[in-house]
Amino acid sequence: MMIVFCGILTWFVPAGEFDHENIMVGDTVRDVIVEGSYHKVERSPQTWQIFGAMTEGFKMQAAIIAFVLIIGGAFQIMNSSKAVDFGIRTFVSKCRRLEQVSIFRKIGVDWMIIVASVLIFSAFGALFGMSEEVLAFIILFVPLAISMGYDSLTGLLMVYVPAHVGLSSAIFNPFTTGIAQALSGLPMFTGFEYRTFCWLLLTILLIVFTLWYAAKVKANPKFSPMYELDSYWREKSVESDSEVVDGKAGVQAWISYFLISAILIVCAVLSPKTQISIGDTVKSMTIMPWIAGIHAISGFLLLRKSYLYYILDIFAFTIVLLVVGVMGYGWYVTEISALFLGMGISAGLVMGADANRISHEFIAGAKDLLTAALIVGLAGGIIVVLKQGMIMDTILNSLASLMGGTEKGITVSIMYAIQTCINIFIPSGSAKAALTMPIMAPFSDLVGLSRQATVLAYQFGDGFTNMITPTSAVLMGALGIARVPYDKWFKWFWKLLLFFMIAGLVLLIPTAYLTIPGF
Q1: CB of 273 within 8 A of CB of 290?
Q2: 3-state class of 281 per DSSP?
Q3: 282 pairs with which residues across the strands?
Q4: How confident is residue 244, by pLDDT bands cut at 50, 70 and 90?
Q5: Please, are residues 155 and 199 in contact by the beta-carbon 8 Å criterion?
Q6: Of the segments 3-12, 86-95, 270-279, 333-342, which one has the largest average pLDDT value?
Q7: Phi, psi at residue 47, to the nearest 5°?
Q8: 228-232, 293-297, 451-455 — most confident range
Q9: Which residues contact 42 (CB under 8 A, 6 or more apart)?
Q10: What is the DSSP string of 427-488?
Q11: Cβ atoms of residues 385 and 10 within 8 Å
């Protein structure tokens, strides 16, 4: 329906476009808008093209669609070993034992797990822009939340939401802050002090809400709007509990262990030093040799105990390699997909499965997430219709023109509102920076507004609405994995989103008046 609506708009909204030019941003060539180049063009109303929008949307979002399917297949292989269920039950059981200690009993073990999860994923979002990568964790944390007596929404509050709250602050995110500052002519990652304050405050607010909501659901499960639909996860947990798994490692498990160890050793020899980038700081660290050595020891000890423990060990090292790859080698969707595919195949070999069973489980997992993949393609189709109808730039130009002749506090607020509206049509942070910063930055000079304030308005406008706009492929993928219908998510989440948007505005306005470090 949204594609059809956008198609109707192409018949009434005037067609227009900006001229573009290529500039160097660091070592990368970026396509940016030429200031003041907007001009009318011939109309291109969409008719039958709306039926091809899904195909074009699949082309546009192909990487994320493939990522979702591969993640589903890889984790299905791992889940078929029952190692994840075993690990969650063991983890929760050990945490429950901490309740015997009075101090932990007073604090609440479940609350400690929730707080730690929110802090970690929010930090990941702020430091290296975790977004698509979070999809890999939803399939683990939703069952964990269910096992602790909460609901699937609590699982999303523990993983997906904090990553995007962190993304909104973007302390050192190279994909948003880095590109926006470079296009604005600012030194990369300057002003991180105030962004760190924003991140800390927003994360604390999220922790408070998550703990409040989790307590409400635990006291009254029917308080959750997902109570009935979460029966899928509860039944899955019961099925897992009823199955007894023999954890004795076979020959195939040991062969897999030696192969993985050999691969890690080769990587350690080829890359003894890793250049870890945090903001504009680059530090050379000896990481791969340590990973290879620790895996050799931990894998051997755990495999002797049970192959279930070793599969969890593989998953843990997958996460470590994910962080190292993103921060040290610039990995993105393709490399991360390959990493998790390797994890899934390794888990299948460790549990003694043959090629046929591994393939069967992979296809079953991909099939389970096919609906999410279709929705991602449709979301991309919305953007396709707007671009083919030549009204995307008209919308951008009209929004930008609203900022003329206003006071600084109002101006920065309007910038924030514009970036928020644009984010509905362009969820990609880097693409939005390339489109808007060349326009917003020069305008901020004309009204005496700091370009840093303009960048922060862009960041808040980019991050918050990604958690509710249906054009966000990551959101639709996350909801598909968690089995949360979009309509229920919208009805439940919009109030929290409004709260964060207001909090962002309160944090943004001082940058127009106060002398803040970096601003």
Answers
A1: no
A2: strand
A3: 277
A4: very low
A5: no
A6: 3-12
A7: -125, -95
A8: 293-297
A9: 15, 390
A10: --HHHHHHHHHHHHHHHHHHTT--HHHHHHHHHHHHHSGGGT-TT-HHHHHHHHHHT--HHH
A11: yes
* CA separation, residue 248 to residues 258, 308, 309, 351 (Å): 17, 8, 10, 9
CB 113 within 8 A of CB 99: no
Residue 505, pLDDT > 60, answer yes
Q: Give the pLDDT confidence score for residue 130 in this predicted structure.
A: 76
**Amino acid (1-letter code) at residue 71:** I
Which amino acid belongs to residue 84? V
CA–CA dist 197, 504 (Å, integer): 12
Element (H, E) at 390: none
Return the biggest CA–CA distance within the chain. Answer: 74
> How far apart, in whole angstroms, are the C-alpha atoms of residue 173 and residue 125?
8
Q: Which of 13-27, 56-70, 144-158, 246-260 bottoms out in mean pLDDT, i.e. has the lowest?
A: 13-27
Write out the two tokens for 185.
């002519």
Mean pLDDT in residue range 47-63 = 86
